[in-house]
């Protein structure tokens, strides 16, 4: 344990995602050894980000304005809507250059262990965006892990009533991984080969049942008499 502000800094850094106690200690001592102006610049950037950053009023992507760059772009295909967990997933998908639709950021995934349910995500706003009928396909690009699959399954069931095509990126993404870490080629191909969650092919029409031949209700004795009669007169008995 260190004394005073150094230990306080290590404790705060270790609370960040992906940073353990040892990593926090390395960062703390790096900042301690860094020039004063660099540390003050970092502190100023952190303050400005917290004060200026906001979320898009339409898709909840991180933005500096009321609407993000994607939602402001008139060249985007409004009929395609890609649902992701976090804003970092938008950045990963945009790097591929394969998707020209719009996005909806849920703000996380369904996780009973963490006490996070559908009501804690931007699901209600998603359903509201589908109300006017502009969107014809929803791509559920949540992470291919347990929470992401549970979120996609829930949304898929809810979206069936909206009359839109519901798809999921094709296989190729690592199971249990995050979309943000997928390389551009793999992610681009996953979007190109996205598959429907419910199947797009119409159900085949039922085949007509072949008619069964008429059943001979005559008894064995009747058939024998008919055969004998025909052998005598040469014509079938009436």
From TrEMBL:
Zinc finger (C4-type): 56-71
A Pfam family recorded for this sequence: Toprim_4
Ranges annotated as spanning the membrane: none
Domain of life: Bacteria
Record GO terms (molecular function): DNA binding; zinc ion binding
PROSITE patterns: RECR, TOPRIM
SMART domains: TOPRIM
Any one Gene Ontology BP term: DNA repair
Domain (Toprim) ranges: 79-174
InterPro entries for the chain: DNA_Rcmb_RecR, Rcmb_RecR, Rcmb_RecR_Znf, TOPRIM_dom, TOPRIM_RecR
UniProt KW DNA repair keyword: yes
Renumbered residue ranges of the record's region Disordered: 194-238
Basic and acidic residues bias spans: 212-226
Ranges of Polar residues composition bias in the record: 227-238
Protein's UniProt keywords contain Glycoprotein: no
Annotated keywords: DNA damage, DNA recombination, DNA repair, Metal-binding, Zinc, Zinc-finger
Function: May play a role in DNA repair. It seems to be involved in an RecBC-independent recombinational process of DNA repair. It may act with RecF and RecO.
Record-stated family: Belongs to the RecR family.
Record protein name field: Recombination protein RecR
Organism: Arachnia propionica
Gene: recR
């Amino acid at each position: 344990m260190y004394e005073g502000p150094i230990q306080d800094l290590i404790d705060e850094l270790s609370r960040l995602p992906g940073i353990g106690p040892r990593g926090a200690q390395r960062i703390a001592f790096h900042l301690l050894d860094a020039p004063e102006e660099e540390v003050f610049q970092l502190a100023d950037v952190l303050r400005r980000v917290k004060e200026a950053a906001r979320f898009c009023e339409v898709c909840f992507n991180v933005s500096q304005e009321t609407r993000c760059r994607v939602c402001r772009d008139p060249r985007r295909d409004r009929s395609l809507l890609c649902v992701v967990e976090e804003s970092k997933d938008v950045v990963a998908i945009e790097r591929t250059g394969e998707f020209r639709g719009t996005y909806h950021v849920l703000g996380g995934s369904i996780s009973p262990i963490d006490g996070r349910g559908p009501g804690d995500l931007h699901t209600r706003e998603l359903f509201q965006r589908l109300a006017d009928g502009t969107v014809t396909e929803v791509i559920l690009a949540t992470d291919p892990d347990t929470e992401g699959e549970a979120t996609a399954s829930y949304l898929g069931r809810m979206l069936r009533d909206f009359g839109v095509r519901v798809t999921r990126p094709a296989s190729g993404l690592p199971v249990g991984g995050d979309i943000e870490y997928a390389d551009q080629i793999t992610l681009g191909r996953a979007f190109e080969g996205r598959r429907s969650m419910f199947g797009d092919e119409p159900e085949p029409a039922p085949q007509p049942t072949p008619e069964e031949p008429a059943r001979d209700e005559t008894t064995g004795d009747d058939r024998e008499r008919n055969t004998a009669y025909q052998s005598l007169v040469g014509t079938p008995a009436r």
